[in-house]
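TICKET #2291
ISSUE: user wants both folds in one file
ATTACHMENT 1:
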Amino acid sequence: MGRINVFADESGNFDFSRTEGASRYFILTTISCIRYDVGDALLALRRDLAWAGLGLASEFHATTDSQAIRDRVFQARQGHSFRLDATILEKAKATHGERSTDEAFYGTAWRQHMGSVAREIAAGDQMLV
């Protein structure tokens, strides 16, 4: 079996209160690919935007980037093979033990996510084109 690259990101925070600023959900997302071509396309887009004077202060970020940049990101990823998986955890349903530390909750998120998708990722199943 060849290499499979897995990249991850999360959204949400470890605040379990119902106060303003506390996210209701914690989302763990992975993108799996065999080749780096989708990443190469995104790096090329980043360079093109910088040359066009649209210097991005940091990474692409859907909540802060303009719609025009988000559209370009979606165009750049078209035609490339990858797999995207997301696990959405409603934080109110976490047990007391899972809430005891940030590490406990984060570990739970990873176990649930990878427990659901690891075999399929390793097999290279369902790569999107």
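ATTACHMENT 2:
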Amino acid sequence: MLNDFYDESESLIHPEAFYGEQKFLVEKCLVIFSIEIHSYLLNNYKCEQLALITACNGNVPVYAFEYKGEKIAFYLTAIGSAIASSFVCEVHWITGATKFIMFGSCGSLDNEKTKGRFIVPTESYRGEGCSYYYAPASDYITIKTADRLCEIFDELKVPYVKGRVWTTDSMIRETKGLVTRRKAEGCIAVEMELAGVEALCDFFKLTLYDFLEAGDVLSEDSYEAEGLKGANHNIYKLLIALEVALRI
């Protein structure tokens, strides 16, 4: 049962076992999903490697650069709630970052509301497994910084819509029935990381700022993928994220 996942007793495994003592090198970090956005940063800014997320299947560098006088870290994350959450935890340990800005693509469940606008999630349906290890079972998890992010978007004059989203572990099991249920509950988009990353950040007292750009579109009887590549790699998302980083 889902209630069996959450336990308040002490963890047996700790990042210190893999990385040694915690480092305190930077406060803010961008969580990047696009290899093109990641390459853009490396090619257009003077970047230094701060740390390395290590694993038996390969290592992920964590870089830092200066933007308008602010030192900001970034790394290329993996897709999926469990691994994206784990990366945030490890990056916090090896760099000291406590404020994370995550900006990826998503599937629209309401194209009329999301077309031409970024999405600021207010709650995420917990249709994945990771969040249940970090928070007691519930249907939705609240995205605590949504109101502040909306204030920043208003200041920047960025077009956006706010609302519920759905985090899933399996894109190919976004069925007609599940789309209908989530839409009936007010979800306007579906993605694969937010619920787990928010739960982990809440647990470890970290702060997550998340916004999305819709690419593909799902309805109860159709699927359109034409806009997905553009939403994945839109450099404008990065420029927004950098301005958010200056204001948090």
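RESOLUTION: both attachments delivered.
EXTRA DETAIL ON ATTACHMENT 2: The longest strand covers residues 207-218.
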